[in-house]
Amino acid sequence: MIKALKNLRPIAGTVALSILFVVFVQALSLALPLLMSLIINNGIAAGDMEYIKRTGLIMAAVSALNILISVLSSYFTSKTSAAYGKIMREKIFLKVESLSHSDIEHIGTPSLITRCTNDVKVLQDFLLQGMRMILAAPVMLVGGTAMAFILNAKLAMIIFAIIPVIALICFVVVKIVMPLFKKRQKLTDEVNSFLREKLSGIRVIRAFNTSEKEDERFEDKNRRLSALVLKFQRTMSVILPLCITLVITALVLLVYIASKNIDAMTDTVKIQNTVGDLQAFLLYMMMIVFAVTIAAAMFVIVPRANISAKRINEVLEIEPGIKDCEAPEDIVPEKRGTVEFEKVTFGYEDAAPVLKNISFTAEKGQVTAIIGSTGSGKSTLVSLITRFYDVTGGRVLFDGTDVKKLKQKTLHSLIGYVPQKASLFSGSVRENLLYGDENATEERLRLALDISQSSEFVDKLPDGIESRVSQSGTNLSGGQKQRLSIARALVRQADVYIFDDSFSALDFRTDARVRKAIREKLNATVIIVAQRVGTIIDADKIVVLDEGEICGIGTHSELLDSCPVYREIAESQLTKEALS
After folding, report:
1. Is the domain of 462 the same as that of 380?
2. Non-local CB neighbours of 360 within 8 Å, separated by 6+ positions
3. Distance in angstroms between the alpha carbons of the first and the last residue of the chain
4. Domain check: are 98 and 209 in the same one?
5. What is the mean pLDDT of the chain?
6. In whole angstroms, what is the distance from residue 383 CA to residue 378 CA?
7. Given pLDDT bands bounded at 50, 70 and 90, which one contains residue 542?
8. d(CA 229, CA 50)
């Protein structure tokens, strides 16, 4: 919790003002019962109207000032809470951006979303309630107790009889609530994960008529979460009625004892003074009781916030698995684009190696293709170039320099990467293209659209290049999204282009036109991962993978003769005429 609250430092001024106003409000509140007692004792009992008016005006002024300070207190505590939420969400977002693929997969995307939204909201609410209640409780408790003892020490002892009971109730409730809240957050993660999976796969669910089965699975998860939340709320609802019952009992006992004392008196002035003191005493006792009730509520709120703080800190304290080296090296200018794999081995954590002893070179101005059966490690291999993952053995060299010794920002600036799944962002077509280079000229954008064969459909859109793209590009076809994804990478004018099975959604005609334009208009290193032999048939070099190992390197015609694995793939896709 303390670690999470350290992030309040950027808004320390607002926090200080919030604390000051909260304390000031409670201090002013302590003066009001005393002023009321003075009016009854010294004004009404003595029949002194001037004293009543004078003290009444003071009381009105204190009340008005209290209202003003209360408004300022609410404003600054709300501002503090909102600013803190903004800071935490930003920190989590920036942290996630710095994490490697394996780091993100370890926590899980749904859990990261929950931590960035639900857990931050819990801390925001805690801060808002805490500044208004936790800070107010000590002032009310200490101040109210002091004033109550000044008025009548004997009666003040009554409240101390119920405080241990309330504390015991809180302790028992907390022991029950904390495990429930931990389980609740975990189940929330599960529900979010389930929803994310099903919403992204809604077409598959409908196509296979499994909606009812998925509904049942969701109902089961939802029922478990609802039952836990209900149990959680029931447990939390026990503490307040118990505390209120004890408080009311104490107040009834207090009034009863005071009334017996008043009945025993015969002096009218003493009776009036006792009534005035009793009125003030009751208000101070209510303040004490309210402070104790707040403390009881905090016994539930604080553990809940503490769990959310731990979940957030878990993200913020992760050390990225892939980091820049302390003394990064520079790229050798004369090579610009040569990628070399030198006896590379890679395996995911706690798993057998996916790639073994991979060695080949992709030269500038050439097209190097990578092909192999499903699961042979093609996409993993190109992910090592961009350092989405780090090799577990051997080296990946970019222009003769180990990629581990380059700044990630520098490395990525030299690579145009097109992922397996075309990913577009909400905004215009132009804005999506400018992800490649925000300073790109109109000519560069148009050239990228032409090479990727995107101009033919972009020009037909209602607003052309300014047309809106919905989130994830859902208003475009698969082929259109893939072509725009290719265009975005081409805008960068990189030294190396990586196309990770990026032509799969294109028809053969468009595929051929895109590859022809890339070969003619780009003087760069081009690495293509493909499933279709037709896509890589004219590549300068084809690397064939089989179960994570290279089983052949050469041109299409060379591999047909020397590599049985490649020939088997080619025969399954091409006609005899194309093979000959």
Report:
1. no
2. 340, 341, 368, 541, 543, 550, 553
3. 70
4. yes
5. 81
6. 9
7. very high
8. 59
